[in-house]
Amino acid sequence: MSYHVNNEGKIYPCRATVKKCPYSQFEGRHALNKENLYHMAVILSNTVEPSKNMFREISNEGGVSDLSSLSKELEESKAPVELILSSLHYSIEALEKKENSYVNSMKERAKELREKAIDNMVELLQRDNRIGETSYGRQIGVFHKFPESMQKEAREIWKRYHNYYRISNTSSNDDYLIKSLENKVRNDISQMNRYMSFAKSNNSINNKKLEYMKSEFNHFSKLMNVSKIISNRHTYEKNEYETVDDIKNKVIALNNDQLLAAYDGCTVSDDYVRDLMVESDNFSYKMRDDLSPKAQDNLIKWHKTNLELAQRYELRSLNRILWGIEIRKEIRDRGGSTDFVLNSEKEKIDSLIE
Ligand SMILES: [Zn+2]
Hints:
elongated; 12 helices; single chain; mainly alpha
């Protein structure tokens, strides 16, 4: 099954073949795995600014291993989960970019040093006739102590481009040159190893924090997606009694984006949403020790509100069916209209309805 994230940042199973789905014209809206759409969902729906405190901690520490830097802001936030998500989303993005560019520059530097060392090793092969033509030859000097893979590459270049050519060395000047070449190679190799270990160690430290941040991001994204699905301001949120005519009029009033989003919202099965609720532990909140009691109160309130929304959602099942019927009709009616910007071809809309 494929999923898509709609214009309201809600993730639903996609029932069109991906090519025919109205969201297929946008990059990054479909995935086989819900988790892969969580970042896109934040980009499309989040209106909360990320936390500056968390950014500060990340730039000092290279990541966070708990959410304590958000605690103060969470105490007052009107949208605590959005705050967590937006902060983690931008932080993960920044960290991945930084880590990649740091590690890459280390690796790049190590590669340059390796190439430089090999160039000098080729020159050693040309000048130092104590080194055998093959690696089984005489092993005098330091050449054979260099890493084997590098010796091999140097010999290959020597053979391919210089055809085992040697510059005759007769003067004491040449001995001096050989010594200094050996030193250069030795220095470059030791620098190269240092850059490689920088790249590796930095990777492992940041990865641990990054993994933690990603797991929190996925946890709260999962909750957020259910929360968005069970609360839909255009359709089933209100408790009032609606006649079919009421629904018709409301559906007609939706703009194209809202209509498509409402289509998702009113045609997703109750069982699917129930499964999402189970995956989210029915919005039961687990106490945590990285946040202040006041911050946790705010999160507890959020969880409780969503549990109430979920109960209301269950009761509106029949209403959603009526909405679904009217939405299908309306999508069909708009099919011929050029106003239907997202999907002007009738064929595509029909495939969506089938
Ligand atoms: Zn789709």
